[in-house]
Amino acid sequence: MDYVTIASTGDAKDFGDLTEAKNYLTGCGSPSRGLFAGGMTPTKINTIDFITIASMGNAFDFGDLTSGRNALAGCSNSIRGVFAGGNTPTMVNIIDFVSIQTTGNAVDFGDISILRENMGAFSSSTRGVWGGGNDPSNTKLNTIDYVELATLGDAVDIGDLTPARKGLAGCSNGHGGLG
Question: Which fold has domain 2-178?
């Protein structure tokens, strides 16, 4: 893991190591913790790692997703981390959640509107949002879904990206999202 200080310029520096080498994972965090979930090692895994953001060092085991998968997308507020979609090796519409300040296994939150992977994700203090991705036929998607982070339930389709795309990343200042 590398880190940068957002308020300054410069190269990334070494933070520590994940619990194992993996790729195609996702991340989210709170003001005090960072979480990394899923991925491949080369098999699809369900591991969730956590770090304490204020101190450098290696990640620790947090718990497990409800299923091993890669190419999923995570978002969070200061309380919940939410992980959606991915590939198990079949594409899924699963949404899992964890309470960031504890440790333990993820719990079913609901479903995103369609089977997909490779989405961008962003969030505010109240909403988690996923955009784009691809479906099982590898068609690029323009779907935008959201959930209310404080509740449980299925995501709601709230609009479309322009244009459809996959393999994107997202970020937010809490008022608007960029993908």
Answer: Neuraminidase (2.120.10)
Terminal-to-terminal C-alpha distance of the chain: 23
Task: Return the domain boundaries, the chain.
Answer: 2-178
Closest CA to 85 of 96, 98, 77: 96
Does an H or E element contain 145, and which? strand 143-148
Q: What CA–CA distance (Å, rounded) separates 122 from 179?
A: 8
141 neighbors 114 (Cβ within 8 angstroms): yes
Q: Are 83 and 36 in contact (CB under 8 A)?
A: no
Which amino acid belongs to residue 155? A
Enclosing H/E stretch for 172? strand 171-172
Going by the DSSP 8-state scheme, the letter that residue 44 receives in this structure is: B
Single-letter amino acid, residue 8: S
Q: pLDDT tens digits, residue range 13-61?
A: 999 999 999 999 999 999 999 999 999 999 999 999 999 999 999 999 9
